[in-house]
Amino acid sequence: MTRIAGGESLSPQPVHHRTSLVDNHGRRITYLRLSITDRCNLRCRYCRPEQGVPFIHHDEILSFEELERLVTIFAGLGISKIRVTGGEPFSRRGCMPFLERLRRIPGVERLHITTNGVKTAQFLDELAEIAIDGINLSLDTLDPERFKSISRRNYLDSVLEALDGIIARALPLKINSVVLDDTTDQEIRGLAALAKQHPISLRFIERMPFSGRDHAATLEKSDLAARLLRIFPELTECATDQPTTARLFALPGYAGSLGIIQGYSRLFCATCNKLRITPAGILKTCLYDNGTLDLKKLLRGGTSDREISEAVLNCARHRFANGHEAERSASRTAEPSMAKIGG
Ligand code: SAM
Predict the structure, then answer these.
(1) Is residue 126 in some structural domain?
(2) Residue to mutate, 95, 175, 205, ligand 1, most ligand atoms under 8 Å from C-beta
(3) Residue 36 needs a FRET pair 20 to 30 A away by CA distance; which of 56, 86, 87, 259 works?
(4) What is the distance between the alpha carbons of residues 104 and 284, in angstroms, rounded to a whole number?
(5) What is the tally of structural domains in the chain?
(6) Does 3 map to a domain?
């Protein structure tokens, strides 16, 4: 059990009266990804333009109090896993105390964070103290020049400091690496070596055409499994009975595992257990939908917790079967960016 200075317990809190959130396709929803900001200190070329995206006005972003109220409501509906993401979550002042408060919300059994690592090193002791259940660190390359060319920023040293600190503290770590059109096999081998040395999961991510226009090009080059098998012929796939967006592989002599995440191919919709809330308070029941509920309007319009729960249950009852169906009905003219949705 983890304790903080005042001696208070920060263990996951049990909750007794919970509804089960089951959608109209029989999928049990237990996981909420909470994007707490649209701001980011990187400008990754596959995520947002160099000049950035127009920021959502501060007043339009959910306050921490509003987010905590929502998490309490969602936990009452059976959400047990929360992932805090962004934008870059540590770009928002107060992120760490917010995580500490989330830890205490009854029903939140697993708390995770996704970060680019730029400002993360300074918070590692506190993340250890709250016994964070998982850190997903985004790291596309180990080469400083290439890091700069992908992210348009020169922060690889800070990210590697965070990586070393996470490993030194034995915090549960997954590294996410987006595979770009010009990612070489050598680069993939270099990243994979981290999983050889350390008991971590290194997941290669299929690039999605968010903010881009080249669906065909992305699909053509997206057979990551075949590519990994070619590079590492001894890979064996690990079986799992958990809903997951990653396929995991073991490799002889590796302390950790390799994985692939094929969000664009949408191979995992049948077991999707996830909801998302954007920084502006829009509930998404699928990454590819246009948003199904304006939670901010409800929060600021005097709606009771019970009414908000009902509205969420109603969205779950009308969930798209898969990301293709969601995308068709969203009828967008432009691809949305992960910067706005929250990764
Ligand atoms: N700033 C945090 C980070 O970098 O981990 C959290 C947000 S970021 C949007 C979450 C993840 O989404 C990162 O791993 C990023 O690489 C990934 N991502 C962003 N745009 C993407 C795209 N077009 N295709 C695939 N992954 C993408």
Answers:
(1) yes
(2) 205
(3) 259
(4) 25
(5) 1
(6) no
What atom of ligand 1 comes closest to residue 46's alpha carbon?
Answer: 23
Cα-to-chain-centroid distance, residue 237: 23
Q: How far is the CA of 115 from the centre of ligand 1 (A)?
A: 9
pLDDT tier at 279 (50, 70, 90 boundaries)?
very high
Cα–chain center distance at 7: 31
Ligand 1 centroid to Cα of residue 224, in Å, is 17
Q: Which two tokens stand for residue 89?
A: 């979550």
Distance 279 CA to ligand 1 centre (A): 15
Token readout for 246 is 């990653």
For residues 50 and 170, the model is more confident at 170
pLDDT for 262: 81
Cross-strand pairs, 176:
138, 203
Domain holding 179: CATH number?
Answer: 3.20.20.70
Residue nearest to atom 5 of ligand 1 (CA): 115
Structural domain includes residue 103: yes
24 inside domain: no
Q: Where are the alpha helices (DSSP H) in 183-287?
A: 185-197, 215-220, 224-231
Cβ of 210 less than 6 Å from ligand 1: yes
Residue nearest to atom 9 of ligand 1 (CA): 343
Report residue 68: phi and psi, to 5°: -65, -40
pLDDT of residue 179: 95
Domain membership of residue 95 as a residue range: 31-341
So what's the pLDDT on residue 17? 58
Please work out, in degrees rounded to the nearest 5, the angle formed at the alpha carbon of residue 246 by the alpha carbons of 250 and 161.
80
Say yes or no: CB of residue 286 within 6 Å of ligand 1: no
Q: Give dist(CA 238, CA 92) in Å, integer.
A: 37
